[in-house]
Design brief:
- The chain has about 350 residues and is an alpha/beta fold.
- It is built from ten helices and eleven strands.
- A six-stranded mixed β-sheet has the order 5-4-1-2-3-6, sandwiched between helices.
- Helix 3 links the parallel strand 4 and strand 5.
- The model has no long low-confidence stretch (mean pLDDT about 95).
- Bound molecules: 5'-O-[(R)-(carboxyoxy)(hydroxy)phosphoryl]adenosine.
Length: about 350
């Protein structure tokens, strides 16, 4: 099954061609410079950039896959969650192309893409996580989605049967990295810069609270860390490099502690055979290390996407998620708040 997948849920215009779970091409166009001066993504600028780039990105994805429209079996497109006006660009283009080339359409949940991104494999790779999907031993699994817009724990009995067992009540983990990084003058998106400078931090020089220790649920909260950061920054008017590093280190330590403490709650009393991780924040090596050692402590294998490019937004994961869905008629619309529990 060869699928051309489109994702315009946020600021990246992403198009990929997959043959089952093998990635034949994956192209991304991001115009970050347009958003930089605002310190975050401006929806109308993102939409303009999707509109300007989408045709070129689709052509390039086909060229890189060495395929023409004739060989494409289906078109998949992100239906949500995401920025409404941005989702609209991808959906309109997918419908237009489906009509023009008479291809079946599959709307996909962006978070299901992140969740299943570990299944995607590189072209010409002989064995990979792909075989796992046929291996019932990885189910039921616990998915950990850590992206710029979402942070949640998802219990999956099988593909398409999802229960959210914990989620952030306010900011996503990536958002906290971005907002605190911005306060520290680290640019946008700040996650990777914050991770890097945190390596120079002196443990114990600054402390952040660990959120929600009193609650017994697996829900999380990252906005208190933002408040703690602004308090600490206000107390250090001359923010030198060492102080920035100390704050970054302390924030990251608390955020990861919070995540793993809540992950304990998420697996408590649940039948789980594996942990599956997706989303931009898992590019972070400290987060990966913490999740790997969590898995080891609990005797659970932990599966990550094979490449960092599959962690942040991309369309290959949308193509892979589309494999387990049947095509629909083209009367579907965007769902900016589409949850995993609404996936059928
Ligand atoms: O998955 P993604 O593209 O976002 C959504 O789909 O919402 O991930 C982007 C997020 C940003 O918040 C970015 O700062 C964060 O992932 N991120 C990181 C790192 N690399 C990317 N956060 C922490 N450490 C990193 N190394």
């Amino acid at each position: 099954m060869i699928i051309l997948a489109i994702d315009t849920s946020f600021d990246d215009t992403a198009v990929a061609v997959v043959s089952d779970t093998t990635i034949l091409s994956s192209v991304l166009s991001t115009d970050l410079s347009a958003h930089l001066e605002y310190g975050g993504v401006v929806p109308r600028l993102a939409r303009a950039s999707h509109e300007a780039n989408i045709d070129g990105v689709i052509s390039l994805a086909l060229i890189r896959a060495h395929l023409t429209w004739k060989e494409i079996d289906r078109i998949a497109v992100t239906q949500g969650p995401g920025l409404s006006i941005c989702l609209g660009v991808g959906i309109a283009k997918a419908k237009e192309l489906a009509k023009k080339y008479t291809k079946p359409l599959i709307p996909v949940n962006h978070l299901e893409g992140h969740l299943l991104s570990f299944l995607a494999k590189r072209k010409q790779k002989i064995s990979s996580n792909n075989e796992l999907v046929h291996d019932e031993h990885i189910f039921p699994l616990l998915g950990i989605i850590l992206s710029g817009g979402n942070t949640q724990f998802v219990h999956a009995k099988k593909i398409g049967e999802y229960t959210i067992v914990g989620k952030t009540l306010d900011d996503a983990m990536g958002e906290a990295y971005d907002k605190i990084g911005r306060m520290l003058g680290l640019g946008y998106p700040a996650g990777p810069f914050l991770e890097k400078i945190a390596r120079e931090g002196i443990p114990g020089s600054v402390t952040f609270p660990v959120p929600m220790r009193q609650t017994h649920t697996a829900d999380m909260s990252f906005s208190g860390l933002k408040t703690a950061a602004s308090r600490i920054i206000a107390a250090h008017p001359d923010l030198d490099r060492q102080t920035i590093a100390n704050i970054a280190f302390a924030f990251q330590t608390s955020a990861i502690k919070h995540l793993t403490e809540k992950l304990e709650k998420a697996i408590e009393g649940r039948e789980i055979s594996a942990l599956v991780v997706g989303g931009g924040v898992i590019k972070n090596l400290e987060v990966r290390k913490a999740l790997r050692s969590f898995g080891k402590r609990h005797g659970l294998p932990v599966f990550f996407p094979y490449s960092p490019r599959l962690c942040t937004d991309n369309a290959a994961m949308i193509g892979v998620a589309a494999l387990s869905h049947t095509p629909t008629t083209d009367d579907f619309d965007r769902q900016p708040n589409f949850t995993l529990e609404q996936v059928s």
